[in-house]
Each structure stands twice: as C-alpha cells, then as structure tokens.
Amino acid sequence: MRDLVIVFGSSSAITNPHHHHRRCYATAPESNRKTKPSPSLTKLLPSLPQQHSASSPAPVSATHSLSSHFSNVVRWIPDGSLEYYADFASKLAEDGRIEDVALIAETLASESGANVARFASMVDFDLLSKAISSNLRQGKIESVVYTLKRIEKVGIAPLDLVDDSSVKLMRKQFRAMANSVQVEKAIDLLEILAGLRFKIKELVDPFDVVKSCVDISNPQLAIRYACLLPHTEILLCRIIHGFGKKGDMVSVMTAYEACKQILDTPNMYIFRTMIDVCGLCGDYVKSRYIYEDLLKENIKPNIYVMNSLMNVNSHDLGYTLKVYKNMQI
Fold first, then answer.
1. Can you name the residues that pair with 46 across neighbouring β-strands?
2. Which of 34, 64, 120, 144 has the least CB density, counted as fewest CB within 10 Å?
3. C-alpha closest to that of 167 among 187, 188, 148
4. What residue spans do the PPR repeats cover (predicted)?
5. Coil, helix or strand for 196?
6. d(CA 270, CA 237)
7. pLDDT of residue 37
C-alpha cells in the first residue's frame, strides 16, 4: 500500500499510519526553509483519492476546507492511529499552530467511535501550553479563546494549558479591549471563557467594562457581562448608576427590568439605587413607579429605600407624608 505524505511548512509531516513504523519527512534545501514562509495548513493538505501514483502526487486544493480534507483522512485511516494523530497535533503545537491542533481535535470529536479521551491523553500538553503562550504574546487572544473552546471537545482541559504567565498576557489584552470600542468582542470572548470555568473577574476590571458599555449606550451588553460574575447585583447597581449619571433614563429602565428577570429575590440595594437615579435624572414619577412595583409584589421596602423615595419626592409634601405614614405600619 502506498504511503500518504502531507507536507507542512514546518517540521510537521503526516504519513499513512498503516505504516506508522515508517515515517516519511519531506526535506528541502536549507536555503528554501529559511526563505519560504510557513503556508496555511488549509492550502497544503491535499485531497485523498487513492488512485494517484507515487510519481503523481495528489493536487493541492486551496478552495476545499481543511475540515473536509481532514475528515477524509480520519475516515480513511483505521482506529488504531490515535497515537499518530496525537503526535501530529503535538508537532503542530510545537510550531505554534494552535488553530490546526483545534481542527484535528474537533474533527476527531465528530467521528463516531473515536477514542478522543485516549487522543487527549497522548497530546503533549507542554508543547500545547507553550503554543498558547506564544500566540498570546503575538496578541492573538481571539484565536486562543476559540482554540480552547474547540479542544475541550476531546477532553483537553483549557485551564491546564493556561499558566500564570499566559493569564497575565490575557489580562493585558482584555483590559485594552475593555477600554476601547472592542468591549463587545471582549465580552463575547469572556462568555466563552466563563463556560470553560475561567475566573472572569481576574481578567479585567468589571467597572472598566461597565464604563465602556455605558459610554456606548449599550445596557444589554453591560447586563450580559454582569451575569458572568458572582455578586451580579452589585454590578447591576453600578450599571444603573452609570446610565443615571449619563442621564439615560431609557437605559436605566432597561437595566431595571432585566434585574427583575435575573435576580431570584428582591434586592433592596437595587431598588434604592433606582430611586436615587430617578432623583438624579429629575424623574420623580419613575421613583413612584419603582415603589408601587414593590407594593404589587407584596415586598416591604426597608428604611433606606423609603428615605430615598421621600428625598426624591420632597417637593410634594402630601406624597412624602403618605410615604412616611406607610413606614410606621
């Protein structure tokens, strides 16, 4: 049976694992290696029809996706080749090509009967961890996050691949994104990392994220982020207050309605913040709406909420006295 050889722009090579005891590595003159850029794995992986002779290699197709090509390899090679795939993935990791490693993992995970746990146990974690760090040093935070999500499908724990130095690199890039127009992309990535059990609060200052969301007048985005963190109610108050200082009462009410959906139990700190913001924006009518909302839910406001309500409505002595009497009940 003929050996299949797939040549990469680095030291990585793939051979037919029917003959995995005979590995063929394509060689090139040293001068070529130094000057030829590392091509994309997508462009170098050939199609696999077996009728090609050894003297007539399979053509390279730049239009077909790597996923299609690699899936063909997986179906063609028997199940006993997981060691081969793990070695191949490790070589790609050594070259820093984490997206190609992720594609191998993702494709194997989609194959019924593939022992992905065995594959994961044989991949060189040290090389993969170094590749993650290398990509982060190049500013490729988005590539890293999506790679971590994809390789988890074969049981590779993302947290095991991100050491302290990588966390510092992630923190630096997320903080830069949080303070720019890229805040939405940052939150998209943080949602993925939260699903991978990363500690989101350690990656970026929550107040910086909220400030950026307020600056772009996007309460929904701010609420999405707040839901990623413990003590969500504290951050929700910050969101409400931030939009209140801006005088954006529409966004304040959007955040308030979201709070009622998100929180399991009433939070007096949020109600007090809402009423204070109504006073800040000069909308005493909305403060009464908040109070009536509490009464409809058979919730007894605490003294701090009532004091805020009276302060906001201090111009209306009749209403203030009515609130004061309700406090005595």
1. 60
2. 34
3. 148
4. 267-301
5. coil
6. 6
7. 36
Report the pLDDT averaged over residues 265-291: 93
Identify the DSSP state of 2. P
Give the number of other CB atoms < 10 A from CB of residue 284: 18
Q: What is the pLDDT of residue 70?
A: 56
| CA dist., res. 5 & res. 13, Å (int) | 7
Contacts of 74 (CB under 8 A, 6+ apart): 107, 108, 111, 114
Q: Which among 70, 76, 67 is positioned nearest to 3, based on CA atoms?
A: 76
Helices (H), the chain: 30-35, 41-44, 66-76, 82-94, 98-110, 116-122, 125-137, 141-151, 164-178, 183-195, 206-215, 219-226, 232-246, 249-262, 268-280, 284-296, 303-312, 317-328
320 is written with which tokens? 């203030």
Question: Residues 185-208, buried b or exposed e (16+ Cβ, 10 A)?
Answer: ebbebbebbbeeebebeebbebeb
The pLDDT of residue 293: 87
Burial environment of residue 124 by CB neighbours within 10 A (0 to 12, 13 to 18, 19 or more):
middle
59-70 average pLDDT score: 43
Residue of 31 and 111 predicted with greater confidence: 111
Query: Which residues are registered as beta bridge partners of 15?
Result: 5
H helices within 111-230, ranges in order? 116-122, 125-137, 141-151, 164-178, 183-195, 206-215, 219-226
Would the CA dihedral through 15, 19, 23, 24 be positive or negative? negative
Phi-psi region of 113 (alpha: psi -120 to 50; beta: other; left: phi over 0): left
- As a residue count, the chain comes to 329
